[in-house]
Design brief:
The chain is of the alpha/beta class and 406 residues long. The protein contains 15 helices and 13 strands. InterPro entries: ATPase_NBD, ROK, WH-like_DNA-bd_sf, WH_DNA-bd_sf.
Length: 406
């Protein structure tokens, strides 16, 4: 029977503190020599040697020579099957990662908001379908990770009350408990932006940093904060929700009940509405706006520039509180690149911030639309006390994802 798990810690299978420290170092820094591991973890060379031997015997690490005298240790995984699921308001994405056969299987299901397609029953159906497609049995599953396009309240494990109108089928569902009981495997559940932040910290723009802020901006806006190698959720699980930071107290009403949240300026719907109001132009999606801006449309370029300036204001405020080394922008706005970053970098707030924090780096996220699914994989491997210092190519390559309509 599944139990609600906190994916913020390392080594959920009860590994010793010393082993967990080595795992954390290999995850955060990537492949490292044993001498570097000793310095990072402050463990003796003999202890490091014994832990590396243990991890190699378990198939969780490998040693690779890099020259005639030095070798590096990497986390690897040669066993296990993990399914990662991303539940959005208008779609469901899932990927199965088979570490035995080094294969990945994907599925995408679009649906209308509030449709049965976004229900717990459909998630269970999709997991079982992917397992069958891979030629496996449910008993072969090592675990399942679920990323929700909504905050999950930490004390209860349910979608927080003010976000339930967005995902009505999940009202009062303890996400990890319910799915774990139905599937009979360990389940970790978290906000989609938190998982994307974990993936970017593990394998992307945040690798090697102690303080990392990730902002996901597409249909909605979310954020994930990594402090000292752990996702920081705060007391109620809502830490990192930069999308609901108030920029304009008299601004548009947000679905959370406040006015002038960042989401009301840089999410897909308000950008489309701004474009239509200002230029009388209609676009069906944020991707269309980005494509038109790249094609030379001045109105589309302008709304993206303004979105960047709003992001800059929000980032400056967040940076004053948590002082991240790196802020990464993911989602569709991240993919817009300089169309958004020109506005972000020109914001007065970011300019002022860089005079007192010159080492702050604002970057494009590197994992693209796959970040949440890969973050689910990272979270489950954390829970199992496993890991990957380097993401293998087969795990990055999305299979020809089947797409079903309802």
């Amino acid at each position: 029977m599944g139990r609600r798990q906190d994916t913020s810690g390392w080594g959920g299978n009860g590994r010793s503190g010393s082993v967990a420290r080595v795992l954390e170092a290999l995850r955060s820094d990537g492949p490292s020599s044993q001498a570097a591991l000793a310095r990072r973890t402050r463990l003796s060379p003999a202890t490091i040697n014994n832990i590396v031997k243990q991890l190699r015997a378990e198939g969780a690490a490998e040693i690779r020579p890099v020259n005639g005298r030095e070798s590096v240790v990497s986390l690897v995984s040669s066993r296990g099957v993990v399914v990662s699921v991303q539940v959005n308001v208008t779609s469901l994405h899932a990927a199965l990662f088979d570490f035995v056969h080094r294969a990945r299987y994907d599925v995408t299901i679009p649906f209308s908001p509030g449709h049965e397609g976004g229900s717990p029953a459909r998630v269970i159906e999709v997991v079982r379908s992917l397992v069958a497609e891979a030629g496996l049995e449910t008993g072969d599953l090592t675990g399942v990770a679920v990323g929700m396009q909504a905050p999950i309240a930490r004390p209860t494990g349910v979608v927080t009350s003010w976000a339930r109108l967005q995902l009505p089928r999940w009202k009062d569902v303890v996400v990890a408990d319910h799915l774990g009981a139905e599937l009979g495997v360990p389940v970790v559940a978290d906000n989609d932006a938190n998982l994307a932040a974990l993936a970017e910290w593990t394998w992307g723009a945040g690798q090697g940093t102690d303080t990392f802020l990730y902002v996901l901006s597409s249909e909605q806006v979310g954020g994930g904060l990594v402090l000292g190698g752990r996702i920081h959720r705060g007391g109620d699980g809502l830490a990192g929700e930069i999308g609901h930071a108030v920029l304009e107290p008299g601004g548009p009403v947000c679905f959370c009940g406040n006015r002038g949240c960042l989401t009301t300026f840089v999410a897909e719907r308000p950008i489309l509405a701004t474009l239509e109001a200002a230029a009388g132009a209609r676009a069906s999606s944020l991707a269309d706006v980005i494509a038109a801006a790249r094609g030379g449309d001045p109105a589309c370029a302008r709304v993206l520039f303004e979105a960047g300036r709003h992001l800059g204001r929000a980032f400056a405020n967040a940076a004053k509180l948590v002082a991240p080394s790196v802020i990464a922008v993911g989602g569709l706005l991240g993919e817009a690149g300089e169309l958004v970053f020109d506005g972000l970098n020109s914001s007065v707030e970011i300019s002022n911030l860089r005079t007192v924090a010159p080492t702050l780096s604002v970057q494009l996220a590197r994992l693209g639309a796959d970040a949440t699914l890969l973050g689910g994989l990272a979270a489950m491997m954390d829970h199992l006390g496993q890991g990957l210092s380097v993401l293998p190519e087969w795990a990055k390559t999305t299979s020809a994802a089947r797409s079903f309509s309802n």
